[in-house]
């Protein structure tokens, strides 16, 4: 994936290892389950629960044509991105679900690691600069999966990572033929996505020459979702197979049963112009696969979090809204 290679050049040389994980793994909790969190931590967790209930957007299910819909909408019947993994366009029908309006921040994820007795993430010499207010937490697939399950337990409503179908359906305003997941379906540098000049100002403020993601800066999509087109790839629950669309079931597709890569959506947006031009990576139909548990070489282990570019946005298959209207 061209864009991801560019990210690695900005961060350092990151070596990926191919391993398969099972979706049933549970959080690694070092603390005794009988140990109660402090009153201060309990209060912060409750605040996270309240915020989560408020930010979970209910998406009414329905049918749509998933994938590169160019053959349906273009006069020349050609694909929009030409991305093999996004073809063919095919009918999908989804049940109701809810998806968080925001990616998970470092502050949110820190509550999870503290409550479960795990070390904070992104404390390495370079990666710690990503720990800015309202910045998305960079996590592995397993960390993302475990966090959503933990958060669901605290909220009292089961939660998980979204499926690819759920993410695309939500990003396309319940399946409309929307190319860019922004407030107006257009990609307007500096107004609804980062411009390179805006990124440069953020870099100067933290004193490091890397793109620093900051959430909630631009208007949400019509359904209320922020940062679907910027600030971190988002982990999906699905295993990734570039051929999956050829035999994907119509009803609530979950992805392949097994695999070595996990699906990602959204984009990291290293440079605004670069992201727009390379492989359609900022579009609603872009899909790719990443190693669920990447590793870095020994020379960089004290400097980098290998998950700086991958984030988490939790979903729920509950058929009812989190908060009544």
Helical proportion? 10-25%
Poorly predicted parts: 1-33
Strands side by side in the biggest sheet:
7-6-5-8
Strand elements, count = 9
How would you describe the overall organization of this protein?
With about 325 residues, this protein is an alpha+beta fold. The protein is about 25% helix and about 10% strand. The protein contains eight helices and nine strands. It has helices at about 1-10, 40-55, 70-75, 105-115, 140-155, 165-170, 195-205, 270-275; strands at about 55-60, 60-65, 90-95, 95-100, 235-240, 260-265, 290, 310, 315. The strands form three sheets. A four-stranded mixed beta sheet has the order 7-6-5-8. The protein has a three-stranded antiparallel beta sheet with strand order 1-4-9. The model is unreliable at about 1-35 (pLDDT under 50).
Brief sketch in words of this structure:
With 325 residues, this protein is of the alpha+beta class. The chain has eight helices and nine strands.
Features:
alpha+beta; disordered N terminus
Write the SSE topology.
Blueprint: H1 2-11, H2 39-55, E1 56-59, E2 62-66, H3 70-73, E3 90-94, E4 97-100, H4 106-115, H5 141-155, H6 164-171, H7 196-206, E5 233-239, E6 262-265, H8 272-277, E7 288-290, E8 310-311, E9 315-316
Parallel strand pairs: 5-8
Antiparallel strand pairs: 1-4, 2-3, 4-9, 5-6, 6-7
Helix pairs in contact: 2-4
